[in-house]
Amino acid sequence: MYDKLISRAKLMGISLEIFSLKLKEYTISKEKFYIPENVEEIGYGIRVIDDKSRMGYIYMKKLDENTLEQALKISKLGEPDKANVLPQKQPINKMSDYEVNPDVIKDVMISLRELEENVNLTTISASAINYEVSIFNTEGVEVREKRGVYLVQAVASKNTPEVYEILVSKDPKIPVNKLKENLLEKIKIMENRERLEGKRDVVFTQKALNELLSTALPKLFSARSFHKGTTPFKLGEIINEGLEIIDDPLDSSLPFSRSFDDEGNPSKVVNITDKGEVRSPLTNSYWSVKLTIENTSSASRQLDSIVPSYTIPPSIGSSNIVIRHNNVESDIEDNSVVVDQLEGVNTIDYSCGDFSLIANVSWLNEKGNKTGLKEVMITGNIKQLLKNLVSSSKDVENYGKIISGKLRVSDLSIS
Amino acid sequence: MFKYIKRGEELGASFVDIRYEKTASNEFTITDDRKYVTSGNDEGYSIRILYNRNWGFKVSDRIDNSTIEEAVNSAFGDERVNIVYLPSKHDTIKIGKEVNKSKEEMSEDLNKIAKQIANLHPSIRSYNLNYYDETIHKEYYSSEDREIILDENISSLNIYVIAREGDTIVDTAENLTTHMGYVVDVFDINEVLEKLSRRIENQLRGKTPKAGEYPVVLAPEVVGVFLHEAIGHLSEADVAISGILYELRGKKIGEDFLNISDVPSIDNPNSTIVYYDDEGVEGREVKIIEKGVLKEFMTNRYYSAYLGEPPTGNGRTQSYNDFPLPRMRNVYMKPGNNTLSELFEGIKEGYYLGSAIGGETSSDGTFQFAIQEGYRIENGEIKEPVRNIGFSGNTLTTLSMIDMISKDFGMSAGYCEKNGQEVNVSEGGPHVRIKSLKVGGYVR
Question: Which segments constitute the Metalloprotease TldD/E C-terminal domain (chain A) (predicted)?
Answer without folding.
Answer: 198-415
